[in-house]
Amino acid sequence: MAEKKQKKEKDEQSEYFQERAGTKDARFHVVPHGEKEWAVKKEGTDKPESTFTSKSEAVNEAENMAKEAGTMVIIHDKEGQIEEQENYQNENK
Predict the structure, then answer these.
(1) Residues 61, 51: Cα–Cα separation, whole Å
(2) At a CB cut-off of 8 Å and minimum separation 6, what does 26 contact?
(3) Which of 9, 20, 38, 92 could lock 25 by a disulfide, CB 3.0 to 4.6 Å apart?
(4) In the chain, what is the greatest distance between 2 CA atoms, to the nearest angstrom?
(5) What pTM, to 2 d.p., does this model score?
(6) 15 occurs within a structural domain
(7) Which domain holds residue 27?
(8) pLDDT tens, 53-69?
(9) What pLDDT shows up at residue 25?
């Protein structure tokens, strides 16, 4: 029963990201990348926009990208869980 629920949640999450891929609603995520790096990824894409050796560098880059695009930054912890969100959606209006 729990496996079915997890699969449904994963499918819904995948659909959510696919709907935003390539749109102005796509958000930037700061996520762990490999053993010691951090990546900035745009929703709906597998390839990182950029990678960094420190989380703070990745966060700075994601903030700049989100401000320019008028979207959000979602910052994840080492385990991939959402840690913080920053909204720049009204900055360019």
Answers:
(1) 10
(2) 20, 42, 43, 44, 69, 71
(3) 20
(4) 46
(5) 0.73
(6) yes
(7) 2-87
(8) 999 999 999 999 999 99
(9) 64
